[in-house]
């Protein structure tokens, strides 16, 4: 027996030393025309392995050991870029789409994403890999953005973002470059009134499985972005694998996911990518399990179909749709009731969908055209009933609301490169939108359209200086009789100076405009049910940013940005007794007549240091100090609702390898944000009228405590010959810190109560890719 021991030991250790491999491949194309670049050099930093792109601009690395990689792509006459944080797992190819621009002087060994940045300042790429790696993102790109400087979530329960002190209502969601309605499940999550918002929700309906690198913009926007003043999350879709069929299955507290991608046939490069998800809480709810009296359900389906066309073009069909509901039922033991909400039965239901087409076509060797058309819509209902403690049956109706919204968006953009130093872009956006909310037997509706042409000219003045000059126009009109149309010109300009090989200075300016929130347009005044705010024109904003960037090596960089945003034509309460400013609103619809005479001022300094995932470690440290104020009807300047004064975020992680097939990851995120503001509650009159009444109702003079939240994510990746598995545990608010959300008068407790945000939230997930 002993003589066989060495043989058994060899077999045993060999099984642990087994190496698993997979493929990294992709295409290198011209960033302006989309034409393939033949003969580009693609090199893997690890091992110094390189290859040359073929006739279709394709490259391929087969039989690579699973693990982390970084690509460097060079081509004569074009910029050199380095693409970090490529994760290669067994059972799944990693397909990279690279876009190169004609060369100009650039940061030495700059590490960037595969796509050209869309702006000189205040732009951050969000990758699918980040959403899987960062702690407590719940696979939501908007929650990744809270790691960036100057960005905070309005509430733990939702992904509505406060960007540089702006209300979440000033943020715009885009899909494939065009505006869509709010793409989130449970849009009422985390609000004081429990009513839906127009920009956030509990879970993004679009599955991360479909996302390519998306762009998050927080500053002066290039000319192709309009009808927005605060921030943009522009989500882009990746195409499915066009050579082999692949599957992904995942189970977590968020839900069960199943994704499939692959070619339609062996003889075609057309591909599909589809994902379906059903909430795990929904299955538990069907079994009678609830969470704090609430039963939450959601499900969604998303897809992207890709069809290559003649002469290097591409045609895609994409879509997404989701259903969600949230039912709050009070405990049957009425002696446990402590808060006013516990005597209510609240039923929320929501649905959202979007679908569209894109067409990309190179035109010769210098030009290209891209056309996108998309339609999106949502519908939600919320019913609240007072529960009789004696019978536990619904009695008085406390609320019965319905909201529907839709958008039809069209865009066509023409790119033309005059020469290596000059590029020209021109396009047109057409958007028609509708919002309806029946109330008091009246159908309150807003119907609006916008026409937004734009032009942008980029010119390399010198090898170290590049400029961009653009002009955006916004022509808008509400279809109501008393509504005012507007024709607004918005100049945009930016300049970038490459001071040295590793230092860069940039300056950006933009004038921006945004239509009002539907809740502002449909707000009534006094005893009448007639709308009083259809005369309002868009809010406008001057935004200027001075930026500095320094790289230290191929994976580390420091960014500093000083900014100022001056808003004008802001709707504020139209008389001295109403102090409301639209700057402070989220889901509210105050009974106020507004006038476009208010202003808002935000200025601050942001800093971020980023180390990409190299040598098994990554880190992103970001912070900002800022001041956000507004001016009311009386010309008095006040601190705004979202003027928290500072943000700080530390996002970091370490990967540990165990053998050749195991990766352990430990990831942490720490958020420390200055407390937002709330309105002072008039406790005496609230007690008399048995509802929450505010003193000087539009003034946010109460400073909430600072917000502090540490998150943790631990994962274990295990590779096999034809598949890989990931077991992960996310812990949101691992310290259980009680962060303040808002204050209100609770009838049951007969006093002013502070409502806290979420405590410790554990999310266990298991992912299988094959």
UniProtKB/TrEMBL annotation:
Pfam families: CarboxypepD_reg. Keywords: Signal. Residues 1-17 form the signal peptide. InterPro entries: CarboxyPept-like_regulatory (IPR008969), Plug_dom_sf (IPR037066). This is TonB-dependent receptor.
């Amino acid at each position: 027996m002993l003589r066989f021991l060495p043989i058994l030991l060899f077999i045993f250790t060999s099984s642990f030393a087994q190496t698993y491999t997979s493929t990294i491949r992709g295409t290198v194309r011209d960033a302006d025309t989309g034409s393939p670049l033949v003969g580009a050099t693609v090199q893997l930093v690890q091992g110094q392995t390189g290859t040359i792109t073929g006739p279709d601009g394709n490259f391929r690395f087969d039989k690579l050991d699973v693990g982390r990689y970084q690509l460097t792509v060079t081509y004569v006459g074009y910029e050199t870029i380095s693409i970090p944080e490529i994760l290669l797992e067994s059972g799944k190819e990693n397909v990279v789409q690279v876009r190169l621009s004609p060369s100009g002087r650039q940061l030495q060994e700059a590490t960037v994403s595969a796509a050209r940045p869309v702006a000189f300042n205040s732009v951050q790429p969000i990758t699918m890999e980040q959403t899987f790696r960062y702690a407590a993102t719940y696979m939501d790109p908007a929650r990744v953005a809270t790691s960036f400087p100057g960005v905070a979530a309005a509430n733990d329960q939702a992904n509505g973002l406060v960007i540089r002190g702006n209300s979440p209502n000033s943020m715009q969601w885009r899909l494939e470059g065009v505006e869509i309605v709010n793409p989130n499940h449970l849009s009422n999550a985390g609000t004081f009134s429990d009513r839906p918002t127009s920009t956030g929700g509990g879970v993004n309906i679009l599955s991360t499985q479909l996302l390519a690198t998306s762009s998050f913009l927080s500053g002066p926007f290039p000319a192709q972005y309009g009808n927005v003043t605060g921030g943009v999350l522009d989500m882009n879709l990746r195409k499915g694998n066009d050579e082999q069929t692949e599957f992904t299955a995942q189970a977590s507290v968020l839900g069960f996911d199943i994704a499939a991608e692959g070619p339609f046939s062996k003889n075609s490069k057309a591909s599909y990518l589809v994902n379906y998800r059903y909430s795990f809480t929904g299955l538990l709810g069907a079994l009678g399990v609830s969470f704090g009296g609430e039963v939450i359900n959601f499900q969604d389906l998303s897809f992207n179909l890709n069809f290559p066309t003649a002469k290097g073009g591409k045609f895609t069909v994409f879509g997404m749709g989701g259903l969600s509901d949230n039912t709050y039922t009070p405990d049957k033991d009425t002696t446990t009731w402590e808060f006013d909400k516990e005597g209510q039965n609240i039923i929320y239901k929501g649905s959202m969908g979007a679908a569209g087409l894109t067409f990309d076509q190179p035109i010769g060797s210098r030009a290209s055209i891209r056309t996108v058309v998309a339609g999106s819509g949502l519908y939600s209902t919320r019913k609240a009933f007072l529960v009789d403690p004696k019978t536990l049956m619904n009695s008085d109706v406390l609320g019965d609301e319905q909201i529907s919204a839709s958008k039809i968006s069209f865009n066509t953009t023409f790119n033309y490169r005059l020469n290596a130093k000059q590029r020209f872009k021109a396009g047109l956006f057409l958007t028609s939108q509708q919002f309806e909310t029946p109330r008091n037997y009246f159908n309150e509706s807003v119907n609006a359209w916008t026409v937004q042409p734009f032009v942008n000219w980029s010119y390399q003045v010198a090898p170290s200086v590049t400029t961009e000059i653009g002009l955006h126009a916004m022509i808008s009109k509400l279809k109501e009789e008393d509504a005012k149309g507007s024709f607004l010109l918005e100049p945009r300009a930016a300049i970038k100076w490459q001071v040295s090989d590793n230092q860069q200075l940039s300056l950006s300016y933009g004038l921006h405009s945004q239509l009002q929130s539907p809740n502002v347009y449909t707000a009534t005044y006094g005893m009448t049910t007639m709308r009083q705010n259809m005369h309002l024109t868009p809010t406008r904003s001057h935004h200027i940013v001075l930026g500095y960037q320094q790289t230290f090596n191929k994976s580390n960089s420091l960014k500093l940005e000083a900014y100022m945003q001056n808003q004008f034509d802001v709707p504020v309460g139209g008389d001295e007794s109403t102090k409301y400013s639209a700057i402070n609103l989220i889901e509210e619809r105050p009974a106020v007549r507004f006038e476009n005479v208010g202003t808002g001022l935000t200025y601050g300094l942001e800093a971020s240091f980023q180390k990409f995932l190299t040598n098994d470690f990554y880190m992103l440290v970001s912070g900002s100090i800022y001041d956000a104020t507004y001016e009311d009807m009386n010309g008095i300047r006040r601190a705004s609702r979202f003027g928290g004064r500072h943000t700080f975020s530390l996002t970091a992680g370490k990967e540990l390898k165990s053998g050749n097939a195991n990766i352990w990851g430990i990831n942490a995120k720490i958020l420390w944000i200055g407390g937002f503001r709330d309105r002072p509650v008039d406790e005496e009159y609230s007690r008399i009228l048995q509802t929450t009444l505010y003193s000087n109702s539009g003034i946010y003079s109460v400073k909430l405590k600072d917000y502090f939240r540490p998150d943790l994510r631990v994962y274990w990746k295990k590779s096999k010959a034809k598949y890989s598995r990931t077991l992960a545990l996310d812990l949101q608010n691992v310290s259980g810190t009680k962060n303040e959300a808002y204050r209100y008068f609770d009838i049951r407790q007969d006093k002013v109560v502070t409502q806290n945000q979420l405590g410790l939230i554990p999310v266990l997930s298991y992912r299988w890719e094959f």
